[in-house]
Amino acid sequence: xxxxxxxxxxxxxxxxxxxxxxxxxxxxxxxxxxGHFSVGDTIKVQRYGYQPLLIPLPQSKIFTIRLTVEPxxxxxxxxxxxxxxxxxxxxxxxxxxxxxxxxxxxxIFVNLPGVTVRTYGGPGSTGFISVDGGSSKHTRVRFNGFxxxxxxxxxxxxxxxxxxxxxxxxxxxxxxxSAADIGGDGLVSIHPWGExxxxxxxxxxxxxxxxxxxxxxxxxxxxxxxxxxxQNEGGFPVKWNSSLIKRKNNDFLxxxxxxxxxxxxxxxxxxxxxxxxxxxxxxxxxxxxxxxNARKDDNLWLIGASLNHLRSTDQFKIQWTIKSxxxxxx
Length: 330
Prior knowledge:
Layout: E1 13-16, E2 21-24, E3 42-46, E4 53-56, E5 93-96, E6 115-119, E7 127-131, E8 139-143, E9 146-147, E10 168-172, E11 186-191, E12 197-203, E13 207-218, E14 221-232, E15 237-240, E16 243-246, E17 252-264, E18 269-282, E19 296-310, E20 315-329
Parallel strand pairs: 8-11
Antiparallel strand pairs: 1-2, 1-3, 3-4, 5-10, 6-7, 8-9, 10-11, 12-13, 13-14, 14-17, 15-16, 17-18, 18-19, 19-20
């Protein structure tokens, strides 16, 4: 959802007219309307300070909506000034996964200009994002609107984010409000929610995975749930001293769960709370053979809440986040 200047609009309300199912767009204007809908059904898009818009659902699942400013009338005032105002526009790039779940953590970021994901070895590898060849410490990462960058190192291990939650990513080299919003090289935002359903997968070299997503409406709230697991033995055949051997200690196991609740108080006020937990057990990737059976198990726990209130002159927002990450080397 964008405005007339192609800048995104946050926290707009999208309603399916006939079923009265609604959803709140995230901090970068993205929304996902889940349910049994048909092409041509009417949806209403509204946001405080903009004209409401009624449009039919298009055939494409990804489309752009532009809202027109609706001026808010004030009592007459007299002002005097000298400097001309400067308009700052938000430039951003976005990419989304072509299938339900990307095969690797690189898949979702490959089309973002200048963005590189560094991985080391097999499926149990860590993954770090950098921009234009710079350090991963200089790139801030947001997940679902919340900053998940490590407060000590400045880096973010993307491998701790389950692949089915890497549905869409956007990159902005310029912050939309202040320099505090981005790192030195830019901001990468991850949007986790995609289609609802249950998916089981299997592949080569001992790959198995299962994922489930659902949502329900309760009064003025939307509750979204996601659970899943992934197992990858990573037993790739390699040559070692003219012999064909099978890689060992290259495996990866992950379990995760996520819940998010969005509540609508009024057209101007919304509240959101979410929690993500992921647990990983991984071998020692990147080596063909090692005398050591060194392993690592780690977990990530995120809980966050935000209160957003749109006013006639500005926007008021309170955000609270707790992040806990534990690494255990054996």
